[in-house]
Amino acid sequence: MALRDRLRRLLQRPGTVDLRPFEAVVAEAATREPEVRALSDEALTTAALSLREERTEPPSARDSPELCALGREAARRTLGERPYDVQLLGALGLLSGHVVEMATGEGKTLVGALAAAGYALSGRRVHVMSVNDYLARRDAEWMGPLYAMLGVTVAWVGQSSTPDERRRAYAADVTYAPVSEVGFDLLRDRLATDPADLVLPEPGVALIDEADSVLVDEARVPLVLAGAADVASADPTYAELVRRLRPGLHYTADEEARNVQLTATGARAVEHALGGIDLYAPEHLDALTAVNVALHAEVLLQRDVDYIVRDGAVKLVNASRGRVALLQRWPDGLQAAVEAKEALEASPSGEILDSITVQELVGRYPVRCGMTGTALAVAGQLREFYDLEIAVIPPNRPCVRVDEPDRLYATAADKEVAIVDEIAAAHATGRPVLVGTLDVAESERLARRLDRAGLPCVVLNAKNDAEEAAIIARAGAPGAITVSTQMAGRGTDIRLGGGVPPTAASSAPSPAADHDRVAGLGGLLVIGTGRHPSSRLDDQLRGRAGRQGDPGGSVFFASLEDDLVARYAPDESHDGPAAPDGRVDAKGAHWIVDHAQRVAEGVDMEIHRNTWRYHHLISLQRREVLAERDAVLHGDAADRLLADLRPEQHARLVEAAGPEPVAAAARQIMLFHLDRCWAEHLAFLADLREGIHLRSLGRGLDPLVEFNREAVPAGKRLLGRARDRAADTFDTLEASDGRVDMPGAGLARPSATWTYVVHDNPFGSLDERAFRGLVAMFRRR
Q: What is the structure's pLDDT at 718?
């Protein structure tokens, strides 16, 4: 081991997992390769199944070489790909419960399949969690022949899967599914009233693709199950009213564009427009709220940046992926205000019946592991929140990509001119260019500039993400110019020459001549139009070039007017000279951009940590409720409880209807009130958390302590309240002719339920608002 690696392990630095034991296993697997290659297909499958019969745990040092040899040969026969040694290292890292970092183009899909098969052959049920439907289905079908030869069953779940399809898919040894779908299935199971309706089995192994995106970027985003309620429509009058207001005169926004408020002049203008009311009088509180929400929607949320309008509906854009966030919405009042702003029909809203964060969902699995191209940057969070370590797998071939220093400009306009010039220069030679933008609006603005310059390009953003695989696959073709929002989780390899990866069987790989031509031009050139709030996202974009030892290059352009600087380092200034084209080379100016990114990463870490602190208590309370619910659903706990609480009524009903109908009625009553009380408790906690910051600011108290002070006693009363209500409902039952009359018990559940993801309130609700002062603290440091 190199001295540097020894020091990193001594200091507990990220990426310090020792690969030497894995390397010994891979070396031994190579000695068994001739023997395994001589096996027939049937004999190979039989040998793999014998591992399942012999093991109850993940591969040990004794049988790991056999698994690696069998997996390598099965991949060669079924996929036409013989796994590299580094891919076997990655699979062993996953089987050891680590997050493996492997560069883009190193074959993580095959690595994940080998590890999933290894877990399955040890008797573990594996859920391979991806970031979207497309990747879940693609990878399950692509790796299907490999699994079949190893005697492992595989299936996939997508957004359109029916309950029966989901149940069958989860019964397979390995199930591929978007992480959100697994969460939604869990939420629906938590409200099941019949064991036959359950979909998810007991959790076993969570193998997470794009682990940093899932475990960090989406860890604090709640998945929600809602019940039908009235449509939360917003009065279009307010949208039209705030549209006429002028910045600076009628309202002001803070420098981070996270909050907006009326000025005194603005308040008078609104009062006059609403008929001379006193906007701040108690009787007009609803009008004040509606005006503020409409103002937030109008000023702080930008079309084609925060959301797009497609098919007559508002679609949120996932900031970390640059694409439409399926089933995602803002809290109902803000969602309705944006719909009114865009003159769209209001979408349904409802009461939250249950919710779970991605972090809590993944935490249910006894075994967790993952893979990504950029894990080291979030190693601290993976260790703190998931107890996961990073195994850095070296590339099969050394990376020869040339990463140029950032080019910094004084203004955004100077930067965009320079970007177009750089693209034109590369295109003139035939070199393919991939441009990564920060949002939809920027990608379309740049596309218009390129069009005016006579440079044809293909745009991939949240408006056309359905075509992303084909667009990305062609990005390495000679002369191609591809403009894309965030590349994280796009899931398609970019091959020099524009060849389609072997997953798309309808097209052949590119001719070697095209590959060689592009390689001779320096390979794919990646251009970033600005630094992201996380250096990890920058690295993901860079990693699209230089796959498998191919040549490539990357360069990022930034300006001192970029949103990152304006939001996270607005007080920093630089008086150094700029070149005639606006370029700034002074170290102090570059430090400002680096500093802004560090501040953004620090704020994000603190928000993640604080969100976990709040949700941890809620998770513990939900666990207690679920324990009682499971006892009721799968046993006679409700019948025994109500017999104790209402012995005379219980005896009367049993005499009239028999024990089984009474037990069934008791079960339904208890389940209803447990679910009803939990929904009410969630609403209470949401209101409590929403207002806790005001209390803490007013009295200088710790908001988390104040939250716990009220949330803990409320949680302790929950089960007692549900039991009392169940007993009261039980008293109202009538029975005759061998049946219990339930319709009169008032146990009406929602007529419809649906799932969605709640987007953090962009103007600072909850955690963002609690940490508004954090930015200033980081600036001072």
A: 97
Q: How far is CA 636 from the centre of its chain?
A: 39
Rounded Cα distance between 36 and 99, Å, is 29
- Asked if residues 370 and 217 have their Cβ atoms less than 8 Å apart, the reply is no
CA 744/CA 758 separation, integer angstroms: 35
Report the binding-site residues for ATP. Answer: 87, 105-109, 493
Alpha helix (H) residue ranges in 453-524: 468-473, 512-520
- CB under 8 Å to 134, separation ≥6 — which residues? 468, 469, 491
β-pair type (583-584, 552-559): unpaired
- pLDDT attached to residue 248: 87
Binding residues: 87, 105-109, 493
CB-based burial label for 452 (10 Å; 0-12, 13-18, 19+) = exposed
Distance separating alpha carbons of residues 421 and 449, to the nearest angstrom: 11
Residues (pLDDT < 50) of the chain are: 1-2, 4-5, 8-11, 61, 231, 465, 503-509, 760-781
- What pLDDT is stored for residue 548 in this prediction? 87
Nearest residue to 158 via CA among 181, 138, 139, 179: 181
Q: What is the pLDDT, as a whole number, of residue 449?
A: 96
pLDDT number for residue 58: 59
DSSP letter string over 580-618?
A: TT-EE--HHHHHHHHHHHHHHHHHHHHHHHHHHHHHHHH
Residue 172: CB partners within 8 Å, gap ≥ 6? 153, 154, 155
Contact 626, 674 (CB under 8 A): no
The label of the residue with tokens 């980081």 reads 778
Half-sphere exposure for 320 (CA within 13 Å, toward CB): 20
Q: Which two three-digit tokens encode residue 659?
A: 């024990």
Q: Judging by beta carbons within 10 Å of its beta carbon (0-12, 13-18, 19+), is residue 467 exposed, middle or buried?
A: exposed
The strand pair at 407-409 and 583-584 is best described as antiparallel
DSSP codes of every residue in 518-553: HHHTTSEEEEESS--SSHHHHHHHHTTSSGGG--EE
Residue 626 CA to residue 103 CA, distance in Å, equals: 41
435 DSSP β-pair partners: 483, 527
| Measured distance CA(607)–CA(770) in Å, rounded | 9
- State the alpha helices, DSSP H only, in 375-479: 379-386, 412-429, 440-452, 468-473
**What does the alpha-carbon distance between residue 627 and residue 625 come to, in Å, rounded to a whole number?**
5
Distance in angstroms (rounded) separating the CA atoms of residues 140 and 127: 11
Contacts of 697 (CB under 8 A, 6+ apart): none
* Token pair of 123 as six digits: 């008797």
* Bridging pattern class, strands 481-484 and 524-528: unpaired
Cβ atoms < 10 Å from Cβ of 429 = 12
Q: Which is it for strands 323-324 and 313-318: parallel, antiparallel or unpaired?
A: antiparallel
Backbone angles phi, psi at 35, to 5 degrees: -65, -45
DSSP string covering 57-114, please? SS--TTTHHHHHHHHHHHHHHHHS----HHHHHHHHHHHTT-EEE--TTS-HHHHHHH
Distance CA 88, CA 71 (A): 9
Any bridge partners for residue 357, and if so which?
222
Cα–Cα dist 579/190, whole Å: 62
Q: Are 157 and 181 in contact (CB under 8 A)?
A: yes
Residues contacting 773, CB < 8 A, separation 6+: none
Residue 771, pLDDT score: 45
Three-state secondary structure call for residue 779: helix
How do residues 667-684 score in pLDDT, each as one tens digit?
Answer: 999 999 999 999 999 988
CA-wise closest residue to 260 among 245, 275, 273: 245
